[in-house]
Specification:
Length: 181
Amino acid sequence: MDFQKNIREIIVDLGEDPEREGLLKTPERVERSLRFLTRGYHQNLEDVVNGALFEAESDDMIIVRDIEFFSMCEHHMLPFFGKCHVGYIPNKKIIGLSKVARIVDMFSRRLQVQERLTKDISHALMDILDAEGVGVVMDAQHLCMQMRGVEKQNSITTTSSMLGSFRRELATRNEFTRLIR
């Protein structure tokens, strides 16, 4: 299947002239763009973490908040974007802080729904860290809600996934949600 040929056909189906100067290189640009925006399909957790796990000296909550993310809605292939807040309680090991953001990027750079994205991030961190608990909260704006359909410009979608002690213990969950806001 020729990606660029298909994009060219879409341009024609939309009623445009693919030979118009501004559209001549559009099929090539769209292919590069979509491959970049979905590069998470070609990444795996072990390579992203790259051994950046370290012996933990404490079992206090660690939070990385306001991690910017960009993803693409699997239903409309329109962007959704926002901030991800991640917390965990270590069980003998911690992860390099930049790796938390890289894990968020890996899962967000796929065709997604926010609900699955939130869950994928929390389960990946729980698996790689064997943590006491993990909490992930994501706040996002969805262009499929803002540009089409109901056209609600100021809507924000919030999803959360709480695992281990973040699910079992109300005090832990409350501390996390208080600290990320």
